Amino acid sequence: MKVFPKDFLTTQDFSESQLLEIIDLAIRMKRNKSRYSRALQGKKLAMIFEKSSTRTRVSFEVGMYELGGIALFLSSRDIQLGRGEPIADTARVLSRYVDGIMIRTFGHDRVEELARHATIPVINGLSDWLHPCQAMADFQTIVEKKGRIRGVRFCYVGDGNNMAHALGLLATRLGAHFSCATPEGYEMDERVIEMMKENAKISGSRLLLTHDPLEAVKNAEVIATDVWASMGQEEETEKRKKDFAAFQVNTTLTKYAESGYIFMHCLPAHRGEEVVSEVIDGPHSVVWDEAENRLHIQKAIMYTLMRT
Question: Which residues are catalytic?
Fold first, then answer.
């Protein structure tokens, strides 16, 4: 049996073959749900939410149920972590009670510290730096719609945020060509850029970072975007609307993409801001398949890490 890392904190911790194996497993789980209905029977997942979510909570909770296990929802109001208990102590205690931990939080250092002190698998449900489960669901969707990952021309338009980071790292890890257009001052983290460059040297990916959305979208097979103001940035909303005005994914921009392009968005979406209704609700949009695949890819991740 192939040895995988203990935790799923970033796709950088996994080899290309391991990531593809998880994606393939997710597709098989999607096709044959009953085959895996007892795969994690008796297993327990603690879900720590320091940031609220619709898709993350429902997909992990339903996923554990469909694998035969149970999921425990823990908000910061429910546990001592929200009252100043050290993360290390929370990790040690939960390791005695449950078989895995999913955390959705702010600083990525909190995810890393939790994993460092836990003796059970820790899954990054989202941090301010990365959103790896969503990226995996996106690339599962690309496999289903395009039949391949290697060589796919993937374009991200918008804020150089945790979603851009996760997509760029996974794309370059798996040999997809990645272009990213951000407004000046909203570029991706330099550490992530260096990681992408190193990934690209190994995988053969082409990497384009630009402030020109037309340049980034040219001949793209996949176009993705995200909200302009993420959770915690609400006070910047009006400024960001001005700064990102030229980065809206609309029918003018998508004309530069390949005719059979697909559109992706991690949701929730703000129609009329980062994307227009004609695109997200149009024939090129795969956002609902993408959202559904959060369930399947997370089941595959939990099964891979928690089955022993």
Answer: 104, 131, 134, 226, 266, 294
